[in-house]
Design brief:
mainly alpha, 4 helices, elongated
């Protein structure tokens, strides 16, 4: 049962829904973990899956250096630093 909960909630996490809230709701509805142990259980249980998910996504997405503005994305900082500052309006 625990493996199924982890697989489903980590799938939702890959879609952008998040895994902590969904896992917490299943834990509480099924009374699988005492309430005082839920935060630690979430940290230990969801961390390996989140790390694996991040590594898979980073490895599978390729970024063209031209898409970052050329010069490996560094030229934007210089342009931004030279811009004139506008006065902010405080209401």
């Amino acid at each position: 049962m625990e493996l199924a909960v982890g697989a489903i909630t980590d799938f939702f996490d890959a879609l952008g829904i998040g895994s902590f809230a969904t896992t917490t709701s299943v834990f509480r509805l099924r009374r699988m973990v005492p309430d005082e142990l839920i935060p630690g259980t979430l940290n230990v249980g969801d961390a390996p899956a989140a790390i694996a998910e991040a590594l898979i996504f980073v490895a599978s997405v390729s970024v063209d250096s031209g898409a970052a503005g050329g010069d490996d994305g560094r030229c934007g900082a210089g342009r931004l630093a030279r811009r004139r500052r506008r006065r902010s309006l405080v209401a």
